[in-house]
Structure formats: structure tokens, C-alpha cells
């Protein structure tokens, strides 16, 4: 072991100078660990949905090429950070070593199964081998190690969840926590990408808060996604629209709200160019748009809102909120149908 270093992990930044691990171009993934770090024997990477889609599209769906791409990224950067989307994901693994000055507030023991609740885009990672890719759940089984810093948040895998299901839920844990804070009874709420993982958890939370007030509207382009939304039954309206077509989205939401538009829009679509649909589905005054998606461009959102005279409050989807892991798992525990659907897809 090496003597304790920076709690944020700056001692592992190779370049550029002054960077933190997340915005570093390259980090040091070497062993031994420092005294205030922990070493994880990694089992599965849950790649961020925007990142996984981008790699899959770039490789024209060929999983062998996706494998090579992931190995190349990690060899070059010392972490799984997609150079196009900038995003990472999180990991599932077992604690292999705990540094002697690591502040062990979660009372971890060697051998505990954990999920990292900080992004792979800042987590030093070394891959020995990619065992298998599971494209239907954005997960990659590997052999390798990762290092978590003193400031890194992690969660123990609960006994009542299959581990790949828990990993999938924890990946998007920030979304339900923020949705709890944002939705108010009586509101009109639009969820973009409502048929996906974060989208459907947000729908469940919104329905719990709205009860039989307000209106919950889903935007989803695929038949498969629309069918999932109908099956879950949380939404009052399911609009089969592509969020990359802002004018069409605005028209569709206007039709089902008598032109009043939404008080709150939550964007969970993992593709570029959906900023303006989100903003144009919201009321121009006294509304909020929450960009959970990692495919959001600050420039497009900020300048686009200005361009149409919208005063909507634009919120960046921080992946962390206090107790977000417990909040997300509890939503899935409570919603049996949602849990069954997730179980089919993520185990
Ligand atoms: N802020 C954070 O901390 C954080 C953490 C984790 C993930 N994320 C981001 O959250 C987003 C969602 O992740 P997820 O895991 O929930 O993804 P997911 O399970 O893949 O779901 C995405 C949903 O969006 C739909 N969609 C795709 N293209 C669309 C379009 N053009 N218009 C409207 N909907 C569209 C998808 O439909 P189809 O399946 O039919 O294509 C799917 O229903 C991603 O961008 C991810 O990067 C953010």
C-alpha cells in the first residue's frame, strides 16, 4: 500500500494538470492501492445507456467490435469513459482490499458485494478480459480491478435483489430521487423516454405523487417502449413521438393539454438533440425541465431556450442525491409490476 493521498483521487490523474479524475484524459489504474482507497475485484460493468448506444451504433451492432472499443478506451484512459458521450456507467464487484485509512462509514468487509455509485468515467479500471456483453441490458461481464477513492460513494447489494437487477436500478438512482423532489400534486408532467429504465422508475414516482390529480404524459418513439408504458399503466397519455423532433413533440403535448403544456418535463432519452423537445413541451413560464440524460448539451439547452423566449428552469441531472440508492430500490420494491418487468430485462 501507498501512503494516503487526495480524497478526490487527484493523485491518480496523469493528464491534464489540475484535473479531477472525471475530467482527466487519463488516470493511473496501477496497484498497489493508496491507504485511503479500496480495491474492487470487478464482475460487471453497467455501461451508461447513452454511451452503450453510441458504441453499438459506431460498431454497427457488432459486439466483438464493441469489446475491442471498450478494451481500447480503458487501455488508453485507465477508465471506461466514452470519448464521444463523456459518460461512464458504474460497476458491480467484490471488495478485495481496504486501505488502512479508508473512512469505512459503510462498515465494509473484504468479500462484500458492492455497486459503485460514482461514475466509471472517474474510476480507475483495469480489464484483464471481457467475458461477455449483454446488449439488452447495457452490461459487460469482465475480469479486472477498479479503485474507489475516499470520496467515492458505493452501495452494498441488498439481499432481496438479484445483483444485475440491483446494478441496473442503482445506475439510474439519481432520477427517482430528483423526481420525488420535483413532482407536485396536480401538475402536468411529461417524461421523455418513459419506456426505458430511468423513465419508467420516474413514471412510478410521479404517479405515486400525482395520485389521481394532474396528468402524466409519456413520450416514446418505439412500439416496444410504448407497449411497456401501457403495460405498467402509470401514464394518462402515451405519445408515440421522437424527441429529436421538437415541433412534433410540442404539437403532441399541446393536443393533450389543451395548449397549456407541462409544468415539469423529465428527459430520460439517451440520444442527442432532444433538448428543445424538452423545453418546448414545458410552459414558457414557471416550469421546470430536468435533463437526466447524459446526451444533453448545455449549449443547445441554454441557447435554445433563449432562442424561443422560454424562462423554464433547466436542471442538470446530478447522479447523486442523499439516500438515492435506497430511494431507487424502494420504488422498485413497492411497484411489483415494474419489478417483474425489470427482472425480465435485467437478470
Ligand atoms: N444523470 C445521471 O447521473 C445519469 C445516470 C445514469 C444514466 N443517465 C442517462 O439517463 C438516460 C437514460 O438512461 P436509461 O438507462 O434509462 O436508458 P434506457 O433504459 O435505454 O431508456 C431510454 C429510453 O429512451 C427512449 N428513447 C430512445 N430514443 C428516443 C427518442 N429519440 N425520443 C424519445 N425517447 C427515446 C428509449 O426507447 P427505445 O428503447 O425504444 O429506443 C428508451 O425507452 C441516458 O442518457 C443515460 O446516459 C444519467
General description of the model:
- Helix 6 links the parallel strand 10 and strand 11.
- The protein is built from eleven helices and 14 strands.
- It is of the alpha/beta class and 347 residues long.
- It folds into two domains: 150 residues, no CATH class; 168 residues, Rossmann fold (3-Layer(aba) Sandwich).
- The relative contact order is 0.13.
- The mean pLDDT is 96.
- Bound molecules: NADP nicotinamide-adenine-dinucleotide phosphate (NAP).
What is the CATH topology assignment of the largest domain?
A: Rossmann fold
Structural class: alpha/beta
What is Rg? 20 Å
User: Mean of residue pLDDT?
Assistant: 96
Number of domains: 2
Low-confidence stretches: none
What would you say the CATH architecture of the largest domain is? 3-Layer(aba) Sandwich
**CATH class annotation of the largest domain:** Alpha Beta
Q: State the end-to-end CA separation.
A: 36 Å
Fraction in beta strands: 15-25%
Query: What order do the helices and strands follow?
Result: EEEHHEEEEEHHEHEHEHEHEHEHH
CATH homologous superfamily heading of the largest domain = NAD(P)-binding Rossmann-like Domain
The largest sheet is: 6 strands, antiparallel
Per DSSP, the total helix count is 11
Amino acid at each position: 500500500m501507498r501512503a494516503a493521498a487526495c480524497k478526490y483521487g487527484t493523485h491518480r490523474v496523469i493528464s491534464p494538470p489540475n484535473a479531477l479524475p472525471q475530467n482527466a484524459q487519463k488516470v493511473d489504474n496501477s496497484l498497489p492501492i493508496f491507504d485511503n482507497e479500496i480495491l474492487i475485484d470487478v464482475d460487471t460493468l453497467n455501461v451508461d445507456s447513452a454511451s452503450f448506444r453510441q458504441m453499438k451504433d459506431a460498431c454497427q451492432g457488432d459486439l466483438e467490435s464493441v469489446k475491442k472499443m471498450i478494451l481500447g478506451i480503458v487501455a488508453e484512459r485507465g477508465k471506461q469513459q466514452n470519448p464521444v458521450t463523456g459518460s461512464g456507467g458504474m460497476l458491480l464487484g467484490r471488495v478485495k482490499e481496504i486501505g488502512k485509512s479508508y473512512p469505512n462509514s459503510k462498515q465494509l468487509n473484504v468479500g462484500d458485494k458492492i455497486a459503485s455509485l460514482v461514475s466509471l468515467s472517474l474510476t480507475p479500471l483495469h480489464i484483464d478480459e471481457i467475458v461477455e456483453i449483454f446488449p439488452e441490458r447495457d452490461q459487460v461481464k469482465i475480469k479486472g480491478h477498479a479503485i474507489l477513492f475516499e470520496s467515492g460513494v458505493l452501495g452494498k447489494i441488498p439481499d432481496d435483489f438479484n445483483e444485475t437487477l440491483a446494478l441496473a436500478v442503482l445506475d439510474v438512482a439519481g432520477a427517482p430521487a430528483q423526481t420525488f423532489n420535483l413532482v407536485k400534486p396536480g401538475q402536468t408532467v411529461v417524461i421523455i423516454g418513459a419506456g426505458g429504465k430511468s423513465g419508467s422508475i420516474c413514471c412510478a414516482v410521479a404517479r405515486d405523487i400525482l395520485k389521481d390529480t394532474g396528468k402524466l404524459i409519456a413520450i416514446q418513439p418505439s412500439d416496444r417502449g410504448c407497449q411497456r408504458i401501457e403495460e405498467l399503466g402509470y401514464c394518462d397519455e402515451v405519445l408515440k413521438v421522437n424527441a429529436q423532433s421538437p415541433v412534433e413533440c410540442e404539437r403532441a403535448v399541446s393536443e393533450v393539454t389543451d395548449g397549456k403544456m407541462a409544468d415539469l418535463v423529465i428527459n430520460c432519452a439517451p440520444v442527442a438533440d432532444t433538448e428543445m423537445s424538452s423545453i418546448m413541451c414545458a410552459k414558457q413560464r414557471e416550469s421546470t425541465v430536468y435533463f437526466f440524460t447524459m446526451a444533453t448539451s448545455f449549449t443547445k439547452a441554454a441557447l435554445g431556450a433563449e432562442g424561443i423566449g422560454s424562462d423554464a428552469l433547466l436542471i442538470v441531472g446530478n447522479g447523486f442525491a442523499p439516500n438515492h440508492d435506497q430511494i431507487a430500490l424502494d420504488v422498485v420494491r413497492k411497484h411489483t409490476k415494474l419489478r417483474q418487468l425489470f427482472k425480465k430485462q435485467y437478470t
